């Protein structure tokens, strides 16, 4: 765990790409299979981000090697392998750090847009 | 059913751009997702879908094994730039060859033997630039994949480059066009910057660390 914590700190230097952020968010409340992640990402982003399978699996492969996600279980559906992914503790921590960073940025922007604090709802 | 089979064949072909190990582990899985997201009655692989697959496959093939430090990543990018400049030189020489030959034929006071000599010099320059493109790319790959010996290979390449440039400068007016000298100097500067980056303290540490153990799957 210590090594992955060190790695997380190093990784945290850079802002996370939106697709990565959305994939991790899709896995935040439970495991999902590939197609499930695509559907969740579309839902979370209000239909704005529609990941392609090629993009998704490249990201999943990288996230697995960074130990931010892991394989939860495997099923066979209609003769095809279906793999479920879930966040690792390191992944959850990394997502929380990124969410806090985005939240702080958004709050700063909204505050400056409405100095009285009452315009933005 | 027929449509699905032909679509599946198409996807299998595009998936060939992924590394074999990845295909064995995740090929069926990604194929399942692709077929689930396909439109009703779709027979052919969509352009955007295959572009994403090809990009993903190439990215995975080029992915550096253990993420190298910033200096090494910078060096790899610079080396790709070096290859690009050399490639531009090859293209320029090839594109202007016709004009050069015509000018040589018309040049007064130039014997046929001298003309021939200049033309063959140009061919040598073109071939060596072509070889240089390959050397830049190969060394970029090796350096990005933590082959320590490639750093010394690059040092030798840099020395050769320096020597060539010095010779060019010495005979400046006689044999080299200003454009060629500028291209040579640009390549040399890129090589110099690469040399600095691959021998920084950070890079030295990266090449000396023991090989990373295979990734453990996340504990369940």
What would your notes on this structure say?
The complex is a heterodimer of chains A (121) and B (220). Chain A has 5 helices and 3 strands, in the order H-H-E-H-H-E-E-H. In chain A, helix 1 runs parallel beside helix 5 and helix 2 (18-26) crosses helix 3. With 121 residues, chain A is an alpha+beta fold. In chain A, strands 1-3-2 form a 3-stranded antiparallel sheet. Chain B has 220 residues and is mostly helical. Helix content of chain B is 79%, strand content 0%. Chain B contains 9 helices and no strands. In chain B, helix 4 (70-106) packs antiparallel against helix 8 (178-198). The interface between A and B is medium-sized, with 26 and 28 residues.
Q: Tell me how many strands of chain A there are.
A: 3
Order of helices and strands of chain A: HHEHHEEH
Biggest sheet of chain B: strands, sense, closure? none
Oligomeric state of shown chains: heterodimer
- What is the average per-residue confidence, as pLDDT of chain A, rounded to a whole number? 85
The share of residues in extended strands of chain B comes to under 5%
Structural class of chain A: alpha+beta
- Radius of gyration of CA atoms of chain A, rounded to a whole number: 17 Å
How many helix segments of chain B?
9
Report the mean per-residue pLDDT of chain B as an integer: 83
Principal-axis shape of chain A equals elongated
Helix content of chain A: 55-70%
Annotation, overall tally of beta strands of chain B: 0
User: Which term fits the overall shape of chain B?
Assistant: flat
């Amino acid at each position: 765990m210590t090594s992955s914590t060190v790695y997380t700190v190093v990784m945290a230097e850079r802002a996370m790409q939106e697709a990565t952020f959305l994939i991790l968010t899709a896995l935040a409340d439970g495991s999902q299979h590939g197609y499930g992640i695509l559907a969740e990402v579309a839902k979370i982003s209000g239909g704005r981000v529609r990941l392609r399978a090629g993009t998704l699996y490249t990201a999943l492969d990288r996230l697995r090697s960074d130990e931010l996600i892991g394989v939860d279980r495997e099923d066979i559906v209609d003769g095809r392998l279906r793999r479920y992914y879930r966040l690792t503790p390191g992944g959850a921590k990394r997502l929380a750090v990124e969410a806090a960073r985005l939240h702080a940025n958004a709050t700063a922007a909204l505050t400056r847009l409405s100095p009285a604090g009452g315009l933005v709802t | 059913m027929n449509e699905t089979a032909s679509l599946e064949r198409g996807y299998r072909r595009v998936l060939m751009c992924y590394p074999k190990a990845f295909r064995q582990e995740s090929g069926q899985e990604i194929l399942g997702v692709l077929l689930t997201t396909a439109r009703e009655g779709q027979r052919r692989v969509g352009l955007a879908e295959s572009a994403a697959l090809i990009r993903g496959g190439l990215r995975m093939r080029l992915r550096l094994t253990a993420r190298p430090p910033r200096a090494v990543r910078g060096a790899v990018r610079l080396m790709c730039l070096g290859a690009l400049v050399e490639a531009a030189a090859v293209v320029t020489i090839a594109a202007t060859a016709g004009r050069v030959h015509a000018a040589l034929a018309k040049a007064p006071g130039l014997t046929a033997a001298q003309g021939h000599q200049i033309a063959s010099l140009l061919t040598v320059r073109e071939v060596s630039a072509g070889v240089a493109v390959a050397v830049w790319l190969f060394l970029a790959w090796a350096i990005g994949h933590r082959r320590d010996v490639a750093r010394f290979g690059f040092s030798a390449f840099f020395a050769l480059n320096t020597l060539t440039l010095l010779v060019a400068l010495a005979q400046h007016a006689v044999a080299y066009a200003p454009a060629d000298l500028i291209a040579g100097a640009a390549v040399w500067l890129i090589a110099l910057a690469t040399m600095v980056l691959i021998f920084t303290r950070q890079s030295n540490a990266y090449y000396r660390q023991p090989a990373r153990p295979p990734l453990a799957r996340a504990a369940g």
